[in-house]
């Protein structure tokens, strides 16, 4: 935290590295490092922005909460920077992916994973002699039955892996190559394509997992291992029992909630052109019977996003009540129509009991052009200029009877936060 002198007025500001955040926002790159690319979850946040926020707004050993964890970006960045993390998501696919990507493996576990990869390669290279097996009758049963039975045979081999973290890593690899073969592909993938993808990506996965795990293991704090909690829950149902004794140590909520007015297919792949399939759930053997609006906080056709903002207010008001001390909320949110949705979002946060932290340097928001994503096509109407905004808030608190609204009271609040961190 630093003192700033603007127009002769002393103001207090966090040491938020606006410049670095601005350059990270300018990057349109996909993150290829750590375990981020091991599953392409829709609308993943920029890990570069997440990293800068974690390094600057928290201290090693703190706890970070992500109530909409999706593909696990916050979890991976938190653990590899020596912070503990509690993640939750309504989507069981997101919970699986977060857990599998972000759980570091020790050297023995990496060895077990390597052995499984070798045995799976032997099985796959024999694909011509394999007869299609009976596979569950899911939607689109006629698309690439041979390739799908190969996936089920691979899946069967993971059952023998006793260690849960290794088994999840193996399933993640199967999910990744299945996604690369099926999702958004125009043609039905052949078994040979699956075999080639496995050869190409299995070593890459092991290398990434090894590097990520060594980074996490070297960052363990106070001789205590770091922890990762993944909870499958509606963010609105998170309560003190989910946070347990740790709730006093949550210093940052870092997340990206569903975007207002955007229909992202968090729970479907598209095969054979644009036909939606629940194949990822079938592969993992988890329940998927939800409608298209289940994971978007609001229905597809709600021009003013009323339900979306109502639910957002409830969720953030509840989080504020459940975490009794001060913390920061950093959110990355995209708006297809920022000209009015941004203000709606700000007003919702205000109603939920939060104040925005401004960039005292030039009062400009950190904005990122959304890199080309498939959900672009789901804007209604699509204006082709979607932007992601970084928004920082902190809860309004009553301190000696005063609500923190002015700069001087803001100073008081930051002192409270420093006190909390020293404990
Ligand atoms: C924009 S994505 C999060 C992406 C994530 N930050 C990442 O980097 O991969 C939003 C997530 O919110 C989840 N979600 C939607 N409604 C929810 C709710 N009511 N409670 C918890 N999670 C919800 C969706 O399943 C989706 O995974």
Protein architecture, described:
This protein is an alpha/beta fold and 423 residues long. The chain has two domains: 2-99 and 227-422, Vaccinia Virus protein VP39 (Rossmann fold, 3-Layer(aba) Sandwich), CATH 3.40.50; 107-216, no CATH class. Helices cover 41% and strands 15% of the residues. The chain has helices at 18-26, 47-57, 73-79, 92-102, 107-125, 145-158, 164-182, 191-218, 240-243, 279-284, 306-322, 338-351, 407-422, and strands spanning 2-6, 9-13, 63-66, 84-89, 228-232, 250-255, 269-271, 275-277, 328-335, 354-356, 366-369, 387-395, 398-399, 402-403. The strands form four sheets. Strands 3, 4, 5, 6, 9, 10, 11 and 12 form an eight-stranded mixed beta sheet that branches. Strands 1-2 form a two-stranded antiparallel sheet. A two-stranded antiparallel ribbon has the order 7-8. A hairpin with a 3-residue loop joins β7 and β8 (275-277). α5 runs antiparallel to α6. The longest helix has 28 residues, at 191-218. Residues 1-13, 375-385 and 399-423 have low confidence and may be disordered. Residues 41, 43-45, 67-68, 70-71, 73, 89-91, 94, 234-236, 256-258, 266, 295, 297 line the site of S-adenosylmethionine.
CATH architecture of the largest domain: 3-Layer(aba) Sandwich
The figure for the number of domains is 2
* Small molecules held by this entry: S-adenosylmethionine
Average pLDDT, rounded to a whole number, is 82
Got a strand count?
14
- CATH homolog superfamily of the largest domain: Vaccinia Virus protein VP39
| Terminal CA distance | 17 Å
From N to C, what is the helix and strand string? EEHHEHEHHHHHEHEEEHHEHEEEEEH
Strand content: 15-25%
Please estimate the helix content.
40-55%
Main pleated-sheet profile = 8 strands, mixed
The dominant shape is globular
Number of helices: 13
CATH class of the largest domain: Alpha Beta
CATH-derived topology of the largest domain = Rossmann fold
Secondary structure class reads alpha/beta
Q: How would you describe the oligomerization state of the chains in this entry?
A: single chain
The stretches of 5 or more residues where confidence is low (pLDDT under 50) are 1-13, 375-385, 399-423
C-alpha Rg (nearest Å): 23 Å
